[in-house]
Amino acid sequence: MLRAGEGLNTEQNRVRARSQLFNIPEMFFLYYNCLIYVLCRVKYLQRQGSAVFCSSMIKLCLIVLLISSAGAFAAEKKKPDSSPAKITVKTDEVSRQERGARLSEISAIERSSGTAKVSALKPLLSDHSQLVRGAAAEAMGEIKDPAAFDELSAALKSADDHTRWGAVTGLALLGDRRAVPLLIPALSHPESNTRWKAAQALRDLKDDRAVDALIAAARRDKVKNIRLAAIEALWTIGGDKAAGALEALKNDRDPDVETWAEAASEKLKRK
After folding, report:
1. Is the separation of the CB atoms in 257 and 249 below 8 Å?
2. How does residue 19 score in pLDDT terms, banded at 50, 70 and 90?
3. CATH for 97-175, among 1.20.1730.10, 3.90.550.10, 1.25.10.10, 3.10.450.50?
4. What does each C-alpha distance from 260 to 160, 190, 225, 250, 264 come to in angstroms?
5. Sequence-distant (≥ 6) Cβ neighbours of residue 34 within 8 angstroms
6. For the segment 221-240, what is each residue's pLDDT rounded down to a tens digit?
7. Contacts of 73 (CB under 8 A, 6+ apart)
8. pTM for this prediction
9. Residue 220 and residue 238: Cα distance in Å, rounded?
């Protein structure tokens, strides 16, 4: 398949080649006529006769050659492609409908009374749609089947954002504290929404093993919403270390962080 602009470049090359082909005999005519003129001036050749006749015959032969070459160029241009590429494009509307059907299937599995929900959702974690994969991961946590832990742990390592987000939320919904050591590294993930969701998930799991990582996120993350989510998680988990970190954040340069830290510190004191 030709990329954009290749067809135009090919035609330009043909025109350039055809122009060069016509230039060759024209240059030959020029030099030949100059030669005949000089020879006639020095009276080596007569002005009429065989020299003129030969010149005319050579010109005629070259003109015939040029016409034949031009016909060959035209035939090549009109020649159809013997093996055209066959491309099947699925319309956006069909794709949306199919994706909607699979999302409905996920909801139906969640509402079902069967005991093999994790097995039914597992194939959808490999769906070609990112949205479907993310929804399947979140649904695995929603059904609260311990069998989903291994599947969600694997999905947490996905390079796809939607699958990873669904796995973080799913692990929080599952409520299995074995997920805490897996979610702590997610607070340092290069993708900001993953860090934000990890702070929320650690808040919901309420495990003090996450306090140090949450303090680091509250102090140093470049995204304000992640800092605020970490502050909320520290207040929810509680403890002396979290309380000390919140007191220190009252003097933060960011007024929003300062306000949240002050409010969280007060709530923690009233617990």
Report:
1. yes
2. low
3. 1.25.10.10
4. 32, 24, 11, 8, 6
5. none
6. 999 999 999 999 999 999 99
7. 14, 17, 18
8. 0.65
9. 20
In whole angstroms, what is the distance from residue 231 CA to residue 256 CA?
Answer: 11
Percentage above 70 pLDDT, the chain: 67
**Relative orientation angle of helices 6-41 and 50-78, to the nearest 10 degrees:** 180
In this prediction, residue 3 has a pLDDT band, given cuts at 50, 70 and 90, of very low
Any idea which residue has 């240059």 for tokens?
27
Query: What does the block give as tokens for 206?
Result: 């309420």
Provide the token pair at 232: 């909320």
Ramachandran area for residue 30 (φ above 0: left; ψ -120 to 50: alpha; else beta) = alpha
CA dist 33 to 24, 181, 239, Å? 14, 92, 105
Which residue would you say has higher pLDDT here, 102 or 270?
Answer: 102
Q: What is the pLDDT of residue 146?
A: 94
What 8-state DSSP symbol labels residue 20? H
Judge contact between 258 and 249, C-beta under 8 A: yes
CA torsion 97-100-106-107 (nearest 10°) is: -130
The CATH number of the domain covering residues in 177-271: 1.25.10.10
Mean pLDDT (the chain, rounded): 81
Of the candidates 96, 104, 178, the one whose C-alpha atom is nearest the C-alpha of residue 141 is: 178
CA 132 to centroid of chain Cα atoms:
18
173 close to 144: Cβ distance less than 8 angstroms: yes
- Residues 73-85: pLDDT tens digits? 455 444 445 445 4
Q: How many other CB atoms sit within 10 Å of the CB of residue 119?
A: 13
